Amino acid sequence: MIYITGDTHGGIDMAKLDDDHFRAQFKLSKADYVIIAGDFGFIWQNNEKEKEWLSIFKELPYTTLFIDGNHENFDLLRSYPEEEWSGGRIHRIHDSLFHLERGQVFSIDGKTIFTFGGGKSTDRAFRRPYISWWPDEMPSSAEYQEGLRNLERYNWKIDYVITHAGPARVIETFHGSFSPDSLTTYLQAVAERLDFSRWYFGHYHLDRIVDTRYRVLYQSVIPLGE
Ligand SMILES: [Fe+2]
After folding, report:
1. If you measure from the C-alpha of residue 13 to the centroid of ligand 1, how many angstroms do you get, rounded to a whole number?
2. Could you list which residues have their CB under 5 Å from ion ligand 1?
3. How far is the CA of 161 from the centre of ligand 1 (A)?
4. d(CA 155, ligand 1 centre) in Å
């Protein structure tokens, strides 16, 4: 079983996964997954409090997967060991917590999942480079290319897409002042070419269904496929 939810922001938005809100967790085991669609936020300061938080994920009944958002410490994230897992590249934080890298295709429970983290910070002016903001929040051209290469390998047919930002045309349906950037334009091009069943993304801090197939996620925790 795989569940998916939106941004957690290093504990600020973790209540949705607590015992009272996420009752389904009691039926899950470490062979089940909860995926966080970016702005995970627990790989940030590397202090004792944060290490305690990270070890709490070991105690949860399921395995946690996350893609990166815009609010991550990318230097710290890259310091974790990298390996191949279920068909794609990950950083293993520990045995119950993996970061799914950009432009990868994973096969989990018989379903193919394309992942692409990153996003542009709208609060950039209030943040300091390499302390609370990293240019790596936006993908490199190598990451964009890798995503295309991997989709090519699957003949542009994937079950589920998980991103942090969303495709430009989809964002325009709910975001009045939105202007496209390289990532949302890239995701739009992927959306127009890809054969997929559901596309999940976070970042916009709202829960909404757009055009049946797109799910903007924040506080909701839903089974993958819904
Ligand atoms: Fe966020």
Report:
1. 9
2. 7, 39
3. 18
4. 32
* 2-223 CATH choice from 2.40.170, 3.60.21, 3.30.160, 3.90.76: 3.60.21
Residues in the chain: 226
pLDDT in tens, the chain (226 residues): 999 999 999 999 999 999 999 999 999 999 999 999 999 999 999 999 999 999 999 999 999 999 999 999 999 999 999 999 999 999 999 999 999 999 999 999 999 999 999 999 988 889 999 999 999 999 999 999 999 999 999 999 999 999 999 999 999 999 988 999 999 999 999 999 999 999 999 999 999 999 999 999 999 999 999 9
CB 168 within 8 A of CB 185: yes
Q: Are 165 and 201 in contact (CB under 8 A)?
A: yes
| Alpha carbon 161 to chain centroid, angstroms | 10
What is the distance in A from the centroid of ligand 1 to the CA of 107? 26
Tally Cβ neighbours within 10 Å of residue 7. Answer: 26
* 203 CA distance to ligand 1 middle (Å): 5
CA of 35 to the centre of ligand 1 (A): 15
The domain ranges of the chain are: 2-223
CA of 179 to the centre of ligand 1 (A): 17
Residue 26 backbone phi and psi in degrees, to 5: -70, -15
